[in-house]
Protein backbone atom coordinates (compact mmCIF):
# COMPACT_ATOMS: atom_id res chain seq x y z
CA UNK A 1 0.00 0.00 0.00
CA UNK A 2 2.90 2.34 0.68
CA UNK A 3 3.97 1.84 -2.95
CA UNK A 4 0.61 3.14 -4.16
CA UNK A 5 0.67 6.22 -1.97
CA UNK A 6 4.27 7.03 -2.84
CA UNK A 7 3.56 6.49 -6.51
CA UNK A 8 0.66 8.91 -6.44
CA UNK A 9 2.66 11.57 -4.66
CA UNK A 10 5.66 11.28 -6.99
CA UNK A 11 3.54 11.40 -10.10
CA UNK A 12 1.50 14.33 -8.88
CA UNK A 13 4.48 16.38 -7.78
CA UNK A 14 6.31 15.67 -11.00
CA UNK A 15 3.49 17.07 -13.08
CA UNK A 16 2.59 20.30 -11.27
CA UNK A 17 4.84 22.47 -13.42
CA UNK A 18 2.94 21.85 -16.65
CA UNK A 19 0.74 24.77 -17.66
CA UNK A 20 -2.15 25.06 -20.12
CA UNK A 21 -3.07 21.38 -20.00
CA UNK A 22 -6.64 20.16 -20.30
CA UNK A 23 -6.24 18.08 -17.16
CA UNK A 24 -5.55 20.25 -14.14
CA UNK A 25 -3.40 19.54 -11.11
CA UNK A 26 -6.61 19.37 -9.04
CA UNK A 27 -8.05 16.75 -11.39
CA UNK A 28 -4.88 14.71 -11.10
CA UNK A 29 -5.09 14.89 -7.34
CA UNK A 30 -8.75 13.80 -7.42
CA UNK A 31 -7.99 10.96 -9.81
CA UNK A 32 -5.02 9.87 -7.71
CA UNK A 33 -7.28 9.69 -4.69
CA UNK A 34 -9.88 7.65 -6.62
CA UNK A 35 -7.09 5.35 -7.78
CA UNK A 36 -5.81 4.91 -4.23
CA UNK A 37 -9.31 4.01 -3.03
CA UNK A 38 -9.67 1.47 -5.85
CA UNK A 39 -6.24 0.06 -5.02
CA UNK A 40 -7.05 -0.35 -1.34
CA UNK A 41 -10.36 -2.03 -2.14
CA UNK A 42 -8.66 -4.35 -4.61
CA UNK A 43 -5.92 -5.25 -2.12
CA UNK A 44 -8.54 -6.25 0.42
CA UNK A 45 -10.81 -8.05 -2.03
CA UNK A 46 -8.24 -9.89 -4.15
CA UNK A 47 -4.62 -9.47 -3.02
CA UNK A 48 -3.28 -11.52 -5.92
CA UNK A 49 -5.09 -9.40 -8.53
CA UNK A 50 -3.89 -6.28 -6.75
CA UNK A 51 -0.26 -7.43 -6.80
CA UNK A 52 -0.45 -8.38 -10.47
CA UNK A 53 -1.90 -4.97 -11.31
CA UNK A 54 0.81 -3.18 -9.31
CA UNK A 55 3.52 -5.18 -11.08
CA UNK A 56 2.02 -4.36 -14.48
CA UNK A 57 1.58 -0.73 -13.58
CA UNK A 58 5.29 -0.42 -12.71
CA UNK A 59 6.05 -1.08 -16.38
CA UNK A 60 3.97 1.96 -17.46
CA UNK A 61 5.51 4.40 -15.02
CA UNK A 62 8.90 5.19 -16.58
CA UNK A 63 7.34 6.38 -19.85
CA UNK A 64 4.70 8.39 -18.05
CA UNK A 65 7.27 10.08 -15.85
CA UNK A 66 9.39 10.99 -18.87
CA UNK A 67 6.54 12.72 -20.69
CA UNK A 68 5.44 14.90 -17.77
CA UNK A 69 2.06 15.17 -19.55
CA UNK A 70 -0.89 16.00 -17.30
CA UNK A 71 -3.43 14.59 -19.76
CA UNK A 72 -1.54 11.31 -19.88
CA UNK A 73 -1.43 11.28 -16.10
CA UNK A 74 -5.19 11.73 -15.84
CA UNK A 75 -5.70 8.90 -18.34
CA UNK A 76 -3.25 6.71 -16.43
CA UNK A 77 -5.14 7.13 -13.16
CA UNK A 78 -8.52 6.60 -14.85
CA UNK A 79 -7.35 3.45 -16.66
CA UNK A 80 -5.71 1.88 -13.63
CA UNK A 81 -8.60 2.70 -11.31
CA UNK A 82 -10.90 0.87 -13.75
CA UNK A 83 -8.56 -2.11 -13.99
CA UNK A 84 -8.51 -2.46 -10.21
CA UNK A 85 -12.29 -2.41 -9.82
- Count of extended strands: 0
Mean pLDDT: 81
Amount of helix:
over 70%
CA distance, first residue to last residue: 16 Å
Number of helices, counting only DSSP H or I runs of 4 residues or more: 4
Shape annotation: globular
Please provide a written account of the structure.
The protein has one domain. The protein is 84% helix and 0% strand. It contains 4 helices and no strands. Helix 1 packs antiparallel against helix 2, helix 2 packs antiparallel against helix 3 and helix 2 runs parallel beside helix 4. About 7% of the residues have low confidence.
Quick rundown:
By secondary structure, this protein is mostly helical.
Short key terms for the protein model shown above:
mainly alpha, 85 residues
